[in-house]
Specification:
Mean pLDDT: 74
CATH class of the largest domain: Alpha Beta
Structural class: alpha+beta
Number of helices: 7
Number of strands: 5
CATH topology of the largest domain: S16 Ribosomal Protein, Chain: A
Helix content: over 70%
Number of domains: 3
CATH superfamily of the largest domain: Ribosomal protein S16
Strand content: 5-15%
């Protein structure tokens, strides 16, 4: 009788759970089996496996042949490695202690890999969840803004213009008031400084000297002018007869 290690399906539709069983090769898939070795649930992430490794190794040593899927599960759980080491112990290649130590080392490394994979998977789930929450938050915020914009009353521009003009008028009045205050201050300072300037300026004392000097110079200029004027006339009178006499001599 050929004995196989295979999977027997159970569970409801689209939620299948498989039993790892040892059964006759001629029996139906979900029919009678010899022994149940464990459970395989592919619906979880990662898939969960519950297996009695010692029984599986015993059946493998007895000659049971696993199917392809069952072999992958057994290799994942280290049953095939344990069977290989046990064959070496039977043949005398290694001792039982060496076989057990090697299997324990492999199991520890496998546990570390499983933990790392579980951590990375949980981190990925968390990041995906956070991304979905952020996307949903953005959608909700955009919807709220759209609703607020739709329900908001229309904004009137005229009051704003009037307010701006009123502000400009206010600023202009303030500037004119400041200019008037500055002019008043300048006038007051000029009125205060004028008597001091008049008291300090000695202009009237110098004026008579200039007026007295002017009449003295005027007669000198007038007396000098008549003396120079007759000279050209005398010269002209003396030169004229000479020209006449020379003309007469030339005519003769």
């Amino acid at each position: 009788m050929a004995v196989k290690i295979r999977l027997a399906r159970r569970g409801r539709k689209k939620k299948a759970i498989y039993d790892i069983v040892v059964a006759d090769a001629r029996a139906p898939r979900d029919g009678r089996f010899i022994e149940k070795l464990g459970i395989y649930n592919p619906g979880t992430n990662p898939a969960s496996i519950v297996l009695e490794a010692d029984k599986a190794v015993d059946w493998l040593l007895k000659g049971a042949q696993p199917t392809d899927t069952a072999r992958s599960i057994l290799q994942h759980e280290g049953v095939m490695l344990k069977k290989h080491l046990q064959v070496g112990v039977i043949k005398g290649a290694i001792t039982q202690e060496v076989a057990d130590s090697r299997f324990d080392e492999w199991k520890e490394s496998k546990t570390d890999r499983k933990a790392t994979a579980a951590d990375s998977l949980s981190q990925k789930k968390d990041s995906d969840k956070q991304a979905r929450l952020d996307a949903e938050r953005k959608v909700n915020q955009s919807r709220a803004e759209a609703i607020a914009k739709k329900n908001a009353p229309p904004v009137e521009e005229a009051p704003e213009v009037e307010e701006a003009e009123a502000a400009v008028d206010t600023v202009t009045e303030e500037v004119s008031d400041e200019v008037a205050v500055e002019e008043t201050v300048v006038e007051e300072t000029a009125a205060v400084e004028t008597p001091e300037a008049e008291a300090a300026a000695p202009a009237p004392a110098e004026t008579p000297e200039v007026e007295a000097a002017a009449p003295v110079e005027a007669p000198e200029a007038e007396t000098a002018a008549p003396a120079e004027t007759p000279a050209p006339e005398a010269a002209a009178s003396t030169e004229t007869p000479e020209t006449d006499e020379s003309a007469e001599k030339k005519a003769e």
